[in-house]
Amino acid sequence: MTASSDKTWVFGYGSLIYKVDFPYLEREPASILGWERRFWQGSHDHRGTPDSPGRVVTLIPSPGAICHGMAYLVDHEVFEHLDHREKNGYERWPVHVTMDRSELTVDGLTYVAARDNHAYLGPAPLPEVAAHISRSSGPSGSNADYLLQLANALRQLGAHDPHIHALEALLVSAYRHCDNFQCSRR
Predict the structure, then answer these.
(1) What digits encode the pLDDT tens for the residues 129-150?
(2) Could you give phi then psi for residue 22, rounded to 5 degrees?
(3) What are phi and psi of 76, to 5 degrees?
(4) What is the domain partition of the chain in residue ranges?
(5) Could you report how far apart the first and last alpha carbons of the chain are, in Å?
(6) pTM, entire model
(7) How far is 8 from 11, CA to CA, in rounded Å?
(8) What is the DSSP string of 15-55?
(9) What CA–CA distances, in Å, run from 32 to 29, 79, 149?
(10) CA nearest 97: which of 27, 19, 20?
(11) What is the rounded distance in angstroms from the CA atom of residue 146 to the CA atom of residue 128?
């Protein structure tokens, strides 16, 4: 379960949990300490457009917090694909990844979109974030699908994320109050 010089553990906390479009050697539910997931990053290339960016997750430092996700052991060649996939303001950051099953902690990397990147949108009230997500769409699909798939993936991991699940509840509630599903995607 240790990485060698040509293999690295990558921690996924957003779409990397459920959209695995890269080869990996091992995969395990995992967590990192001291970080929280937030829908504060703009997506100009996947869940929005340059003129109308969507919102996707990034990590923010939060002492004592635990962020659950999925760890993948990958060959270094995989980073060419991952760097392209996470190109819109994300950078690789070193993290300590704790494997859920074994409780073993390993050195790894994750992608973080820091506050000073060009696509950072920052915090907003949850109803505003949910409304933004509900009306955004891009080449990879609707922003609402991204949120709903992430919330479901976390549920399958047995992980509750108050930020994600509160946004999911707001989005689902808004759709229930519409005459049709598309009403909030104007």
Answers:
(1) 999 999 999 999 999 999 999 9
(2) -145, 155
(3) -60, -25
(4) 7-179
(5) 48
(6) 0.91
(7) 10
(8) HHHH---S--SEEEEEEEEEEEEEEEEEESSSSS-SSS-EE
(9) 11, 20, 21
(10) 27
(11) 17
Of 26, 28, 86, 168, catalytic: 86
Handedness of CA 66, 69, 75, 78 (dihedral sign): negative
Respond yes or no: is residue 91 known to be catalytic.
no
pLDDT digits (tens, 9 = 90+) for 91-139: 999 999 999 999 999 999 999 999 999 999 999 999 999 999 999 999 9
What is d(CA 67, CA 126) in angstroms, rounded to the nearest whole number?
19
What length is written for the chain? 186
The pLDDT value given to residue 175:
76
Q: What is the CATH number of domain 7-179?
A: 3.10.490.10
Distance of alpha carbon 111 from alpha carbon 11, whole angstroms: 8
Interatomic CA distance for residues 170 and 16, integer angstroms: 23
Q: How many CB atoms lie within 10 A of CB 147?
A: 27
Among 82, 114, 88, which residue's Cα sits nearest to residue 12?
82
